[in-house]
Design brief:
InterPro entries: HMP/HMP-P_kinase_dom, PM/HMP-P_kinase-1, Ribokinase-like. GO terms for molecular function: ATP binding; hydroxymethylpyrimidine kinase activity; phosphomethylpyrimidine kinase activity. By secondary structure, the protein is α/β, with parallel strands linked by helices. Helix content is 34%, strand content 19%. Strand 2 (35-46) and strand 3 (51-56) form a beta hairpin. The radius of gyration is 17 Å and the shape is globular. Bound molecules: adenosine-5'-triphosphate and 4-amino-5-hydroxymethyl-2-methylpyrimidine (HMH). Adenosine-5'-triphosphate is lined by residues 20, 118, 146, 182-185, 192, 194, 207, 209-210, 212, 215-220, 222, 244, 247-248, 251.
């Protein structure tokens, strides 16, 4: 018999194109050596060109998925992706509380406050933003907004790296333990810097910026890699640092697919000479 791997739960939407959402989360969990559990929140009709619509899953079914795997298999770390509506967000908040997931609890909780696809198509109903602020951010061990999400949540436009700190402070005021302000959308630089802060420790995670349009699923893949490494027992700064090295390589290995934006790729992890960044 093989030893049981750690488990990571993703609470997220499906991307029919397979590059983002729950599909990206599962392949990242696999690539990082943890067993992936899922609570599906919405089904998007999506390809490399954009999101053509979505249907959400009833909130009680989202809750039941979380409860049923947590009660039987146990969850070592969890993350959120697309949550679609204020009702689903409130239900997820109550359910993670009930099963011991979240800031200050046994199980670390990564909140990726997904608001729109990289094409600008909405993945969250407008009225649900306030629910992210009040229901999810206070429960987050780490929140991982991109720059558009930073602007929506705080009103701060990050146009240069120096403003990432101010944005992190503004987000910390909503109550998460750590904030990771991702810098993928800061154009015009050869480096790609994400800023991690808990208000006391501020860490600049610098990576190379690759000149590729194919970064679909990058945010989901980073948040999932962080979640996987939290599940394995790393602390937040180490899990984020490993996650950043993981996503950097996934962007380097991204590929074209379809007429639009191709996905980042964790396939390099399958090569026998490619140890995980923590190995
Ligand atoms: N061209 C690039 N080269 C290297 N790393 C990148 C590049 N673009 C983004 N990244 C990294 O990928 C991760 C995701 O960042 P980004 O800000 O793009 O998130 P996102 O907008 O949520 O992603 P998504 O494309 O899934 O919507 C970050 O660690 C960022 O630094
Ligand atoms: C389902 C889904 N979740 C998240 C994203 C953001 O990458 C996306 N495009 N689709």
């Amino acid at each position: 018999m093989t030893e049981t791997p750690k488990t990571a739960l993703t609470i997220a939407g499906s991307d029919s194109g397979g590059g983002a959402g729950i599909q990206a989360d599962l392949r990242t969990f696999f690539a990082c050596g943890v067993h992936g559990l899922t609570a599906l929140t919405a089904v998007t009709v999506q390809n490399s060109v954009g999101v053509h619509g979505f249907t959400e899953i009833p909130a009680d079914v989202v809750a039941a998925q979380i409860e049923t795997v947590a009660g039987d298999m146990g969850v070592n770390a969890a993350k959120t992706g697309m949550l679609a509506t204020a009702e689903i967000i409130a239900t997820v908040a109550a359910t993670v509380d009930a099963v011991g997931i979240g800031r200050g609890r046994r199980v670390p909780f990564v909140v990726d406050p997904v608001a729109a696809s990289m094409h600008g198509d909405p993945l969250l109903r407008e009225e649900a933003l306030e629910a992210i602020r009040t229901e999810l951010l206070p429960r987050a061990t780490v929140v991982t907004p991109n720059l558009d999400e930073v602007r929506l949540l705080t009103g701060i436009s990050v146009t240069e790296e120096t403003v990432q700190r101010e944005a992190a402070e503004a987000l910390l005021a909503f109550g998460p333990q750590w904030v990771l302000v991702k810098g993928g959308h800061l154009a015009g630089s050869t480096r790609c810097v994400d800023l991690l802060s808990d208000g006391t420790h501020v860490v600049e995670l610098e990576g190379r910026r690759y000149d590729t349009p194919h970064t679909h699923g990058g945010g989901d893949t980073l948040a999932s890699a962080v979640t996987a490494h939290l599940a394995k027992g790393l602390g937040v700064p180490d899990a984020v640092s490993v996650g950043k090295r993981f996503i950097e390589r996934c962007v380097a290995e991204s590929y074209p697919l379809g007429q639009g934006v191709g996905p980042v790729s964790p396939f390099w992890r399958l090569a026998p000479d490619s140890p995980a960044p923590t190995d």
